[in-house]
Amino acid sequence: MKDFLIQHGAFLFWMAVAIVSLIIEALTTELVSCWFAPSAIVSMILSGFVDIFWVQLLVFLVLSVLLLAFARRLVKKRLAAKGETSLNADSLIGQTGIVQEAVNNIAETGSVKIRGLIWSARAFDDAEIPAGTVVIVREIHGVKLICEPNSQETEIKNEKE
Fold first, then answer.
1. Do 55 and 116 share a domain, yes or no?
2. pLDDT tens readout for residues 46-101
3. Are 111 and 74 part of one and the same domain?
């Protein structure tokens, strides 16, 4: 075991640095520590060819600084250009759906089909919304969509009639 650690210690060290930096990034999502992982991987590969640890450390530090300075800035710009993306139920806010069961806040009934799924729904302004109406999601309370009729869709329907 001792011989194994002497022979592969630097390799294991850089592997641990890469894994720990990715774990820290997953917990923080600040795009700081993730740049240490590729630097650690390069140093890990370098450890198979260069036995001098300070050379491996120097490569790690220089590459980390370069990635942190340039790549982070580019990634931040790309993420900002795409805007904030909601990944969960919040992504339904602003989306349109079709009322499947009439929405009535007093009777606590109503459902809306949106993105192929049926959700419990309530009216935004306490007005009853009949089945078949196109609605827009304004809020989400728990597992209920808070909807109101989509005025654009209503105008299109009125023009056709």
1. no
2. 998 988 899 999 999 999 999 988 887 787 777 776 655 554 667 788 899 999 99
3. no
Which one-letter amino acid corresponds to residue 93?
I
Q: Which of 115, 87, 112 is nearest to 98 (CA)?
A: 112
Residues 109-125: pLDDT tens digits? 999 999 888 999 999 98
Claim: this prediction has a pTM higher than 0.70: no
Are the C-beta atoms of 9 and 2 separated by less than 8 Å?
Answer: no
Evaluated on CA atoms 36, 37, 43, 46, the torsion sign reads negative
CB 35 within 8 A of CB 68: yes
Give the residue carrying structure tokens 């304004």. Answer: 138
Q: Are strands 117-123 and 144-149 parallel, antiparallel or unpaired?
A: parallel
CATH number at residue 153: 2.40.50.140
**Is the CB of residue 80 less than 8 Å from the CB of residue 90?**
no
- Of 134, 132, 41, 129, which is closest to residue 95 (Cα–Cα)? 134
Q: How many domains does the chain have?
A: 2
Placement of tokens 């805007």 in the chain: 83
Length of the chain: 161
Q: Which residue segment(s) compose the domain that 119 sits in?
A: 89-160
Give 26 or 42, the one with higher predicted confidence.
42
